[in-house]
Each structure stands twice: as C-alpha cells, then as structure tokens.
Amino acid sequence: MQIPLTWSLLVLTLPTENATARMRFWRALKARGCAVLRDGIYLLPYTEEREAMLRELAVAIAENGGTAHLLRAPSLDASQDAEFRSLFDRADEYASFIHALADARKTVSGQSAAELTKLQRRLRKDYEAIVAIDYFPGEAATRAEVAWQDFIAHIDTVLSPGEPHPADRAIRSLSIKDFQGRIWATRRRMWVDRVASAWLIRRFIDRDARFIWLTSPDACPADALGFDFDGAAFTHVGERVTFEVLLASFGLDKDPALVRLGVMVHALDVGGAPVPEATGFEAIMAGARERAPDDDQLLDEMGRVLDSMYTHFMATEKKSDKGDRS
C-alpha cells in the first residue's frame, strides 16, 4: 500500500496588467511540471528542492504585481492521493515523443553527421524535459526509454557503422616499447572513440604510428594492429570503450587528464554521466568530419582539439591538487 504523499500547493493570481509576465510565469509553472487543481492553484509532490523552486517563483510573482501563497499538505486518504498522482500522468507527452522519434527516424538516411548530431541533441533535450517532470514514472516512461535508446542506436549505426560489441576478456598490461613503429588500423570515417584512440596512440603510445582506414574490418591486414571493431587487438571490453581499454592496457590510466578525456569519450560513445565538455567536442567533431576530405586530415584536426583539451585538463587537475594541499 502506498503511503499518501505530502504536496506543495501554490495559490496565486498573476499580474493582470503585464501580459508578458503572466505568460512567463505560466510557462515556468508548466516547465516545472505543476499540475492544475483549478485556476490559480498549482500542485507538486513535495520535496525541499521543489518547494524552494516554488518559493522563488512566488516571490517573483509578488514582485511583478501578483499574489502567491505557498502551502504544504498531505493527501487526506488513498483515494485523494491517487487522484492527485493521476494529474501528473505523462503518457500523452511520452506518446508524442515516441511519435516524433518515428518521424525523425525516417529522415536519418542521407543527413550529414552535423545534422544528425543536431537532431539527436534536440530530441535528447525534449526527452530529458519530460523525464525531469515525470514524478511518477510508469509503463509509458519505460516505452519511451526503450524507443529513445533504440533511436540512439540507430543514429550510431549511421554515424559509426560496424560499432563493436563489448568483448568479455581480461585487459592485459602491455609495454609501450613493444609497440613502436607499428601499423594501426580502424574503420574509416572516424567518430569519437576512434579519433580519440588514434590520437592517444600517436601521442602517447606509438609516435611513429602509421594508420590504415578500413572500408571493412575484414580488410584489416594481418600485420596491422586493429582497434575499435569486433575481433580487433584493442576494442570495447566490458563497459570500457576502446579509448579506455588503451589507457588500461598501457598504464596510461594513471594520468588524471587522460582519464577525464576517457570519461568524455565514454559518454559520447556509449552514454553515461553527462560531461560538460562533451557537447562542444561532439559539435566540433561533427563539423570536422564534414570538412575533412579524409581520415588523415580528420585526425590532424581533431588531434589539435584533443591536445588542447588534454592541456586544459592537466592545468585544472594541477589547480585542484594545489587547492587540496592548501
């Protein structure tokens, strides 16, 4: 049996002479997922964070000539609790989102990487906006999550055909000196994990590395070290993407700046905790991929970006260390 919830109620009158302010506050209430009990009475399931947000909104309404009173009260009984919960049903929003995904899927073929990245970012924002106000997720939320993950996977197959499946094996410790002057091979038309891995190889593992960009993993020469495709010497292992596997294989995971890059690459390649720098890097990568005539020039261009990010992460890590010691 569900324990009846406590609710935050905002009782308000919006300023009558300021149409712009009225619209701004109405949009703010909608964006925060407030349910409408009746005109001028808005409801949210209570948490300290949500109530603080409503309190700030109440102050702003009063400052703009309206009135607002913030109350807190529990449901009287299970029946009222169920009635209030039903006001937050997001099934229609999720259904509209799933429909938008289906329409977007029809347009994916033939779009550039930059266009696909922009499309995915816009739809992600729409999805996260619904999730943020879905206070009682149910079957509709599950269906939307499945549809969203399926859409992401579809985009990935277009941006990075032949994306590897995680291997179930141990990561061996290797010596950098045994991997000098080698030929390295990966799938052509690189995306985030491959370009970051190629940069890592050239910058930290094999400065004399030569790269082959494969039209198909089956075309990998026997004397080449493959990376980021099924059956390659270096590829996804467990939850680690290829960049992270290379870090672990060659003992580079002791470098905090490289580890931070790895977190970003992981998030962009297979998802994960949001990384502030990820969106900017993804946009630059999409643009560079469109401009560069081949993967050699793409690696040169993105290599400079990764050099700069690595330097930035090194500097911030040093500042953090100094702060910890002070």
**SSE order, as H and E?**
EHEEHEHHHHEHEEHHHH
Helix/strand-derived category reads alpha/beta
Oligomer: single chain
Number of domains: 3
How many E strands? 7
What does this structure look like?
There is one protein chain. The strands form 2 sheets. The protein has a 4-stranded antiparallel β-sheet, with helices on both faces. It folds into 3 domains: 81 residues, Alpha-Beta Plaits (2-Layer Sandwich), CATH 3.30.70.240; 69 residues, no CATH class; 150 residues, no CATH class. 55% of the residues lie in helices and 11% in strands. The chain is of the alpha/beta class and 326 residues long. Helix 4 packs parallel to helix 6. The model has no long low-confidence stretch (mean pLDDT 91). It contains 11 helices and 7 strands. Strand 2 and strand 3 form a beta hairpin.
Furnish the topology, listing elements before pairings.
Blueprint lengths: L5 E8 L5 H13 L3 E4 L2 E5 L2 H16 L3 E8 L3 H9 L4 H17 L5 H20 L6 H21 L23 E5 L4 H14 L4 E5 L10 E2 L15 H8 L6 H15 L7 H14 L3 H31 L1
Parallel strand pairs: 5-6, 5-7
Antiparallel strand pairs: 1-3, 1-4, 2-3
Helix pairs in contact: 4-5, 4-6, 5-6, 5-10, 7-8, 7-11, 9-11, 10-11
Overview in brief:
The chain has eleven helices and seven strands. It has 326 residues and is α/β, with parallel strands linked by helices. The radius of gyration is 25 Å and the shape is elongated.
List descriptors.
alpha/beta; single chain; 326 residues; four-stranded antiparallel sheet; 3 domains
